[in-house]
Amino acid sequence: MRRAKDGSDGPQRGFRADIQGIRAVAIALVILYHLWPNRITGGYVGVDVFFVISGFLITGHILKAAERERPVPMLIGFYARRIRRLAPAAVVVLVAVLVFTVLLLPASTWSATGSNVLAASLFSENWFLAAQSVSYLDADAVPSAVQHFWSLSVEEQFYIVWPLVLLAAIALLARRRATWIVVVIGAVGIVSFCWGLLHTATNPDAAFFDTTARAWQFAVGALVAFVPLPGPRTRLWAPWVGLAAIAAAALLYSEATPFPGIAAVLPTVGAAVVIAGRAPAAEPWSFGFLASFGPVRWLGDVSYSAYLWHWPLIILVPQWLGVDLGLRLKLAILCATVVLAWASHRYVENPVRRSAVLTKRRRRSFVAGGATLLVLVAGCFGTVGVANAQMDAADDRLLAQVTGGQTCLGAGAIGDRSCADPWGDIDVADVPAPLSDKPLVWKDDCIDDVTENTEKYCTYGDPDASETLLLWGDSHAGAWSSAFDIAGKLDHVKVIVAARNRCPSSMEAPTGTTYGDVIPADQRGWCAARNDWVMKTLVPRADRVVLADLWANYRFAGTDSAQADGYSELIDGVRDAGLPVTMLQHVPLTGQTLEDKVIGPSCLASGGSCTNDVAHALPPSTSLPQRLLVDEGYGDVVRWVPVESQFCHDGRCYSAIGGVSVYFDGSHLSNTYSASLGPWLATALDRTQPLSVVG
User: Fold this and answer.
1) Do β-strands 611-613 and 581-584 pair in parallel, antiparallel, or remain unpaired?
2) How are strands ordered across the β-sheet holding 648-649?
3) 10 Å Cβ neighbour count for 6?
4) 189 and 223 in contact (C-beta within 8 Å)?
5) What distance in Å separates the CA atoms of residue 150 and residue 668, rounded to the nearest whole number?
6) Closest to 91 in 3D by CA, of 378, 310, 376, 383
7) pTM of the model
8) Over the stretch 653-665, which tens digit does the pLDDT of each residue have?
């Protein structure tokens, strides 16, 4: 390894004020971004700064240790130190989140929290979130209180793999070791960077959490370990240039910036320049001098604990208090973060890291870490198990009452004078966990995301009936499946449900959503192929076709009138088969816009009013395809089922009706409420109106 001009190998020996300073900058950006995301719009790049720091420090430590110890003892010592350094404070925060949730928050939140804490405990929170990010339904879930552990999971995976990579390079490249190790690190970085560009371009939500798309940032930090000490002038100005790059990214980037694609280069290289600059602490105009200032150095010292504590406070405290995250609460959380970071650093991090009991024998660190992990995992499984049992029991009880003739529950209470006022009231104990009370198609696993699989469908209602109804559409058709099952049983009709997430019942696949998402070409092709298969295979089996979509959600190529083209082609195809076509009205929106959803169960569990005025719940966009079809002459040949009366009253639309949650997330009907709509739907399907009523 090339020796630095000061005689050290790679990083300078001893304390680096500039590194503590850049840690302080990074944690400040992250916390301020999470508290004021509209002000520090790109503050999330602070995490990228931490990745570069980790790559630099860990590479230097490993290479130095490899010169003193044999590989196996070196690895054991390295991992033991990582356990003592990272685990104690993280475990305290995870336990605190779990206990706080169980003691102070509704049972509907327990399962999601337990699952996330489990993923964080097993160093896999980033993959857990990546899987959620590509799930159409999970994308609407309430943020987890330990969601920020995704970056720690990435770092922990790096700590596990990177020493093995470096030791393998050392063993295989004995000659000219430093040069070839740089080549290996560079190769890893290039491959990771190229993959990150591709993954960000094709699936940016998942790419954000992808360790392999982030590895190049650690590699950049690792390469800095081989940079010699710059000249005096360079050491003075280079760190400021690096800080300017980080600040530019923090102020210019936003959630809309594809990340970690090419945009990640700016903060990553900026952090590398700061570290490589090795700003002297003695020069008054140096960044190192500023970083030596007491509060800055202190913030760098406690940055790990501050990172651990700030996000749970932001998520949990407003839920507990039942208030929005206003300015006073933000300032209180900021103060609490500082206090908890200090306490955690002083009484947890340092004592365990320096514990004579643990450092005397390395295996004690592994035993203590393993035992703690087992207890934490057991607590997570217990929390999830108890929560699921409670939620399942509540769901089964409500569903049994709804389907057993208890007409005052759910939609059955609407218009029944013998029932209490059905609008808005609900027992918080009966609120299901978000995403848990899903209608039949999810329980029976016959709905999927837009993939190559095109042949999933379900059969409900009366299986022996002579008449067959085809319910066709996107996930909102799936959300109606429980209602159609009950209606089919009552009317002795067999119901085929052909539903697919984000794939509306149009013979023209949408190109994007109304709030800016672009649907990739491969997904458009799969959606079109799916609907073509339904037309050719399932339509001939039916006697009537009902369409249900999130009508306002999609954009199609061309002008607005193009939105009706795919539906007119579908209607023509179904009519050519001799079948009538019916369209279901859009389910009311829960927020001010389609994108601004209110998660029904979470809102209800926190005691919110959870209502929306009709103007926002059913804006003109929710019936645009129908009005376009009327203009094209389909007003008298297509039937229409208005649903507003089952969701809205006196100008307001509700998330709780008849004592049950209307939605299981921010827009889809819950299984319980959908089932309660069955008796009404059976009648409504026989009393359809001409489509021209929406013109």
Assistant:
1) unpaired
2) 611-613, 652-654, 648-649
3) 10
4) yes
5) 28
6) 376
7) 0.74
8) 999 998 889 999 8
